[in-house]
Amino acid sequence: MILKNKWKKLAVTVLAGMMVMGALGCGGQKAADTKKPAAVSGNITGSGSSALLPLVKDAAESFKKQHKEVSISLNAGGSGMGLKQVSDGSVDMGNSDVPAASKLPKEKADKLVDHKICVMTVATIVNKDVAEKVKSLTKQQLTDIFTAKITNWKEVGGPDEPITLVTRPKTSGTRALFSKYAMGGAEEAANKSLETDNSGLLVQSVAQNKGAIGYVALPYLTKNDTVATVAIDGVAPTLENTYSGKYNVWGYEHVYTGKNPKAAVKAFLDYLLSADYGKRIEELGYGVSSKMQVKDTAHD
């Protein structure tokens, strides 16, 4: 009986020890999961793509809640401007809809580091007075419209009214993507459009001008019903059609930095590319790169 009691006490002791070790192990894992990011401080500056600006601004607001000693200043100005400014060192980050090599000399582009953030779909938009009759245009029709060969909507089945072009400047990456993938590389008609260097203002201008047509990044339309989108060759500009490869007017969004970004910039980019922030990408109207079902190096 004494021997049996001793074995019983030993079993209880061992079991208790295992429970303590297990509890310690669970606590250690939990601590690792909730570990706070290392504190950083300083100023971060960025400029460039107005198409990517909503995403970067959204990430910046979340990042600053975790890093209260960091200030972040972001401006648009177009992809070309952002690439030029990050190349000459006047900003920390250059946001772009297109690869740096398409806007900068090779020797300057080679000195930058590309951080590929997400996918951006470019949509054709029209004033609502046109939308009832014009729901889809062919790439050839788009080319003829933006090169001013077609100047009245009745020529493509729309109302009898003149077409008003609303476009972006040559520094715009959105313009470069639209020209390459929707217009086959054709150049827009010079001095025949309302030109704006801001995507938000472009949407506003299309909404306010009868007969207007323009192009804009899909995220600017997620909470905006003042304009209507137009399909290209019968394919609507949606993330699903972009992922599947049915819709071809899209590009990767890039944030470029120098080869040795400061600690605050590196921490911000780590956050922007993290799984923690990743769930926000589609909510804001951008595409997740890993969901692309087509591997098209031309879009890199």
Automatic annotation (TrEMBL):
Intracellular or extracellular location(s): Cell membrane
Recorded family membership: Belongs to the PstS family.
Domain PBP: 36-275
Gene Ontology molecular-function annotations: phosphate ion binding
Annotated GO CC locations: plasma membrane
Signal peptide residue numbers: 1-25
Record note on quaternary structure: The complex is composed of two ATP-binding proteins (PstB), two transmembrane proteins (PstC and PstA) and a solute-binding protein (PstS).
Predominant location: membrane
Keywords, comma-separated and alphabetical: Cell membrane, Lipoprotein, Membrane, Palmitate, Phosphate transport, Signal, Transport
GO biological process: phosphate ion transport
Summary of the function given for this chain in its UniProt record: Part of the ABC transporter complex PstSACB involved in phosphate import. Involved in the system for phosphate transport across the cytoplasmic membrane.
Tree of life domain: Bacteria
Membrane topology type: Lipid-anchor
Name of the protein in question: Phosphate-binding protein
Record flagged with keyword Cell membrane: yes
